[in-house]
Amino acid sequence: MNLPLPDPLARAYSDTLKATLCEQIQHAGGWITFADYMDTVLYAPGMGYYTGGAAKFGAPGDFVTAPEISPLFGQTLAHQAAQVLALMPQGSILEFGAGSGKLAVEMLTELERLDCLPTRYEILDVSAELQQRQRALIEQKIPHLATRVRWLTTLPAQFTGVIVANEVLDAMPVHLVVWQDGQIFEQGVIWHDQNFAWQARPLTAGELHEIARELPPAASEDRQADNRYLSEISLANRRFIRTLAERLQQGVMLLIDYGFGKSEYYHPQRRQGTLMCHYRHHAHDDPFFLPGLQDLTSHVDFSAVAGSALASGLTLMGYTTQAHFLINCGITDLLARMPADHAGSYLPLANQVQRLVSPAEMGELFKVMALGKSIEIPLRGFVSGNLRRML
């Protein structure tokens, strides 16, 4: 792989995490699940990708998210939040993984314009370094609203309002499962010849096995010579939804991420899975490259998310593409607030909207799912483009 090399300090950082992983593997008897590996490289305190101090977002980082692409993303999302907050005068917003803080800034700015500010804007982020960046940006851009924002270290026992998780589910640990010759295996990680390596072990019992044997690969009639099928199962996503369902008293969860429904996620042609790594704007498939310096992600199985939600007493209020959601919520109207004859300002915004809604960019791969409790009205973001049949 022709990937940029890290500087000596960054490599030493990665080597320290690598040593920690080696000890973890040794203490576990020589083998750990990939979910445990992923959890450590992303979230080990002070050493993981999301808990360390390296730049992650924008040009100096490894990837770009929708709030970084355009202020119109957060402003448009605010219109959906406003519809829900209007039903509960004491409602708050809870954002998971707030990144640079740009989404919070744009949502609060637009909600103030709509005269629909939340009682509080709460942020739950595992990175202390990112929390500092978020505070600095909020105090710089919207100092008069800074007192409404507070940072949490744990989930509140109860919550009423709007929960926002933009590109959060894809960064939760996944188990790698292999279906082959009528058997099910779990792909784990070992330390061999001074490197991390793969090793599969039979999967015969437990929650992961129960889920795996009900998925399409287990019943596949594919008779190719190589009938090996590898994919991901996220127990973490399921537990996350169940926990939020317990805490949510009234309101809506907005989940925005790239992924598919079950039949497309486990399509016969997707036999290598969806696991991807992002390093300095290069996408590749080696999760053992420079642990702690690259992001590891997996597409989201939205059918599994919806199933966990319904089993936990939530209502599926909508599921559509990011393009349909943003257009339904009025992103083109927000773009029109900028006069088209102001080319220097209008054209960049128009290009940004194109990236957010184009099928060739983020428009179709990214989906938006709304899960609700004690909310009876149809949500604005899902008035057209219903994809529930794909779940």
From TrEMBL:
What keywords are annotated for this sequence in UniProt?
Methyltransferase, Transferase
One Pfam entry for this protein is Methyltransf_28
InterPro entries the record matches: NDUFAF7, NDUFAF7_sf, SAM-dependent_MTases_sf
GO molecular function (one): protein-arginine omega-N symmetric methyltransferase activity
Q: Does the keyword Methyltransferase apply?
A: yes
BP GO annotations: methylation
Specify the protein name: SAM-dependent methyltransferase, MidA family
Origin species, per record, is Nitrosomonas halophila
**Taxon lineage:** Bacteria, Pseudomonadati, Pseudomonadota, Betaproteobacteria, Nitrosomonadales
